[in-house]
Write a structure and sequence with these properties.
Length: 323
């Protein structure tokens, strides 16, 4: 088998997991098949210090690395990317290597280096949610979507922060070497095979606003305690001791989303857990979590995850026999 050359780009202040995670995925796959040759390229060869202080040895600098014959270019992100994208030698090397590479990819804020090199102009891309506003402001030509954990647009693949780079790398391995090899790598690294790219970066309890008053807090607690219960506007307003109109205004102001939309998000997350933790039919899960019918669940699920419940179960199942 001809080895594919996978080149990782790092720089001072890179995010160590943006490199180490995908590197481990490709190296594990290569150990099974011999299919990859991994190289680390930095502005200069030698020790490169990550943002957390971890030193990593780059085997090549841009003055010695050949930009030709790169199969897949993987550009790490991290706090140092803002300085790195103003390094003309590094950006020039990325542009040259990416021009003919079969695939151009980035992890987290590495997309800023791809943009500086002119490799993602007009593309649909993602990055870590904390960098979304900066990416939109500085590169209005890009189609920025920071909900998915990774996005493919032609030969360009971009991913969200940190562990999402491993999901991206596993998807690339599956595309190259097949599902069985990707499955074996996932088992070795104790990963899910695999979070789909459409999996959201966000979770209701983490990214919604937090209730500031006791009546709204009590309602939120009740929704999470039993997502499938009757959570219509009138029922929720009654629990809060408010009129429906006043309750809706208060809830939306404190949580940042209307109550009915919040209930649907919580129910979808509950359905996600049920799909990945067991084998119950979709219609059973739909009834338990307040959707009524499987079709109603499918529509809500697709709005929030962009895939069908059955596909989500196939790709993100957490139950697996371990030898």
């Amino acid at each position: 088998m001809t080895q594919r050359r996978i080149v990782f780009i790092i720089f001072e202040g890179f995010q160590s997991l943006d490199l180490v995670g995908p590197y481990e995925v490709f190296q594990n796959a290569s150990g099974l098949t011999g299919g990859y040759r991994c190289e680390i390229v930095a502005p200069t060869a030698g020790a490169v210090t990550s943002g957390n202080g971890l030193p990593v040895q780059a085997g090549f600098g841009v003055s010695t690395a050949d930009p030709a014959d790169v199969d897949t270019l993987v550009v790490a992100g991290g706090g140092g990317v803002d300085a790195a994208r103003h390094d003309p030698a590094l950006v020039g090397w990325i542009a040259a290597a990416g021009a003919d590479a079969r695939r151009v990819t980035s992890v987290c804020s590495g997309v800023f280096l791809l943009a500086a090199a002119g490799l993602v102009t007009g593309r649909r891309v993602t990055t870590h949610w904390a960098r979304e506003a900066q990416l939109r402001r500085e590169h209005p030509d890009l189609q920025v979507d920071c909900d998915p954990i990774f996005i493919r647009d032609g030969r360009v693949w971009t991913s969200a922060g940190v562990t999402a780079g491993m999901d991206l790398a596993l998807a690339l391995v599956e595309a190259d070497l097949g599902r069985e090899v990707a499955h074996a790598v996932a088992q070795e690294l104790v990963m899910f095979l695999r979070r789909p790219g459409s999996q959201s970066q966000f979770s209701v309890p983490l990214w919604s606003g937090q209730p500031r008053t006791d009546p709204i807090r009590a309602v939120v607690t009740a929704i999470h305690a039993d997502p499938g219960a009757g959570h219509g506007l009138a029922e929720l307003a009654g629990r809060a001791g408010l009129s429906p109109r006043h309750f809706q205004r208060r809830f939306t102001a404190e949580l940042g989303t209307p109550p009915t939309a919040y209930v649907e998000l919580v129910r979808v997350e509950a359905a996600q857990r049920a799909l990945t933790d067991g084998d119950e039919p979709v219609d059973t899960i739909a009834r338990r979590y307040g959707f009524g019918t499987a079709e109603t669940l499918r529509r809500a699920f697709h709005r929030h995850t962009r895939i069908a419940p059955s596909d989500y179960r196939d790709r993100f199942r957490s139950t697996r026999e371990i030898a």
